[in-house]
Amino acid sequence: METYLTEEERLEALQRWWKENRQSLVLGVLLGVAIIIGWNMWQANVRSQNEQASNLYLQMLKASETKQTESAINLGERVVTTYPSTAYADYARLLLAKLRVESGDLSAAKAVLEEMLAKTKDDNIKHIARLRLGQVMLASGETDQALSMLEPLTVEQMGKFAGLYHELKGDLYAASNRPDQARAAYQAAKAFGEISPLLELKLDNLPTESKPSGA
């Protein structure tokens, strides 16, 4: 390390160092300030968007509760279009699909849920959307297509929704006149914790289990 003999030499060395490095130091400080300001502005914008999306979604809920279906649908579409990156876009899509089903427009409900499956980043919401899509497809008679969507799913992929998936598969098998597979799916749903009087009724309403030929 260089040793200076006098205070004057130390001052001259400091002045040389400052002259050589001041531009990069100033730029570094300015860049740091810009990053902090940009981060704060981004956070403020996210908060603002969430608040505005929340207000619109609450209006949608109120319109839905008071049976103002058309108004609720319009509000929901505004949430999805204007604030697509917020969680409220997912909530709005779920309610939009429900409203479409209630109004008898299964095709529109299916489109909303398919879009939701493609765009949501929330795994739980994705499961709910897939289950509701399967129910809409069941209601519209698209049982084979719904089964094609559900059958490849593993237990690990189903996660905590496994019981609901198996019950839905049972409904689809029953609608396809495949009672043995429906029974197996319902029993699997029970094994995963879906125990309810309705599920028992579905099992009881299935035809008697077929026996192997020659038995």
From TrEMBL:
Its predominant location is membrane
Q: How does it sit in the membrane?
A: Single-pass type II membrane protein
Record bears the keyword Transferase: no
Coiled-coil residues are none
Q: Which InterPro entries match?
A: SecYEG/CpoB_TPR, TPR-like_helical_dom_sf, YfgM
Organism domain of life = Bacteria
Q: Which protein family is named in the record?
A: Belongs to the YfgM family.
The protein here is known as: Ancillary SecYEG translocon subunit
